[in-house]
Design goal:
single chain, alpha/beta, Rossmann fold, five-stranded parallel sheet, 13 strands, 16% strand, globular, DUF4143, P-loop_NTPase
């Protein structure tokens, strides 16, 4: 590959990085590690690389050390595995210092992971991202031989969303009535429309979310796994959306899909939902009250973006609220988020995070009936000496903020916007 062509690609990309308006993401990358950035389509993976490049320069690196190559650039059409050496040689022509390699949309080059492994073995600093189904899969960790850390990037959290919207939400702002009002209004938009970065400010954000969903469904799931009946897959995802807030069995989902005229086995339901999780369309929580061997049998599924979930719902604000809370907890605690439901004790808690000693109920509003029910399960869980959480919370959409003393303990009532801004 002509080195001058590679230089032009690098120089042009450098100008893009320098000019781009970047909303800081709440991700910390280890300074001495190599990374592969994975996550849902359009979650902002390339922009995170831009942010990292700027951080390196701010910390003392020269721009000449930033070797950022976007393999979707048409000037690199025909680039092959053998051409990667030209990238290394071009970097040596640009700087006498150690370069930082940013390989964006690298899935376009067959066999790229061999080059990525070699760079890591040579103690080079490398950041990799891509957007096809193969890059979204957990297989990447295996194919890169443990040489890279994985950063799972999600759409905007509320903090990032407010920053993107230009809404002040610092400590002083959150003590000011009119600014709190703006935060509350934006939280409502975030709840309904989701946090896909490029969609912020769009007039028709629903169409944007629909486009992303179709690419995930058709490309990252159906095409990659050779699913022959896409309508059946669509129906399954729709039925999962209708069960958000409830635990389900795979047999129940099969029955719900078949009731609409499709044909699918329980094994296929399990496989398809696993594919959807690999593509970062869905994630699940498991019942902490179940025996370990039974936890996979009755999961609760949530969507990785509220805007995508909203495509399937009509007037289901409570589902969107719980999904937003689930997203906030997953960002903070990863796979350590469970629900807790026990037929023996009658305890039913929406979210339980044992590592953080946290229990969370979600209720759109608290009236005399719902308050007693939500508090009762939290109090009952708090009385369990082994599992008792140090903190019990009820998250509401209403501007309801107070403390309930019950059963010798205390339960915090917190509005959604404040809860999401905690993490």
């Amino acid at each position: 590959m002509n080195h001058d062509v590679i230089k032009r690609v690098i120089f042009d990309q450098r100008r893009v990085i320098q000019r781009m308006r970047i909303v800081p993401r709440r991700y910390v990358l280890e300074p001495g590690a190599n990374y592969i950035i994975v996550g849902m389509r359009r979650a902002g993976k390339s922009t995170l690389l831009y942010e990292r490049a700027r951080e390196l320069v701010a910390q003392g690196a020269e721009w000449s050390q930033v070797v950022y190559v976007n393999f979707e650039d048409e000037r690199l059409l025909g680039f092959t595995l053998a051409d990667f050496d030209d990238v290394v040689q071009t970097a040596a022509e640009l700087t006498d210092e150690e370069p930082y390699f940013f390989l964006d949309e690298v899935q376009n080059v067959v066999g790229w992971e061999r080059f990525a492994r070699r760079l890591a073995d040579e103690r080079r600093r490398v950041y990799v991202t891509g957007s096809n189904a193969e890059m979204l899969s957990s297989e990447m960790e295996q194919r890169l031989g443990g040489r890279y850390l994985v950063c799972e990037l999600m759409p905007y959290c509320l903090d990032e969303y407010l920053t993107a919207c230009g809404i002040d939400h610092g400590e002083e702002a959150l003590l000011t009535a009119d600014l709190v009002g703006r935060v509350q209004g934006a939280t409502g938009d975030y709840l309904r429309e989701g946090g896909l970065p490029e969609s912020v400010g769009f007039l028709d954000r629903r169409s944007y979310a629909e486009g992303v969903y179709q690419k995930v469904l058709l490309g990252d799931i159906a095409a990659r796994h050779a699913i022959r009946s896409v309508p059946t897959l669509r129906m399954l995802v729709k039925k999962v959306a209708e069960t958000v807030t409830s635990e389900v069995t795979f047999a129940f989902l099969r029955k719900a899909v078949c009731a609409n005229g499709a044909s699918i086995s329980v094994d296929s339901v399990i496989d398809y939902l696993s594919y959807a999780e690999d593509a970062y369309l869905l994630f699940r929580t498991r019942n902490f009250a179940s025996r370990f061997s039974q936890r996979e049998g009755t999961p609760r599924f949530y969507f990785c973006d509220n805007g995508v979930l909203g495509l399937f719902l009509v007037d289901k604000a409570s589902s969107l609220l719980e999904n937003a809370v689930a997203l906030g907890l997953r960002r903070r605690f990863g796979d350590g988020v469970y629900y807790f439901k026990s037929a023996r004790t009658g305890i039913d808690v929406d979210f339980y995070v044992p590592d953080a000693s946290l229990a969370v109920q979600v209720s759109y509003t608290l009236d005399s009936g719902s308050e007693g029910r939500e508090v009762a399960s939290l109090v009952a869980l708090a009385r369990d000496g082994r599992l008792a959480p140090r903190r019990s919370v009820i998250v509401t959409y209403a501007d309801d903020e107070r403390t309930i003393e019950a059963g010798g303990g205390r339960v915090e009532v917190i509005p959604l916007w404040r809860f999401l801004l905690e993490g």
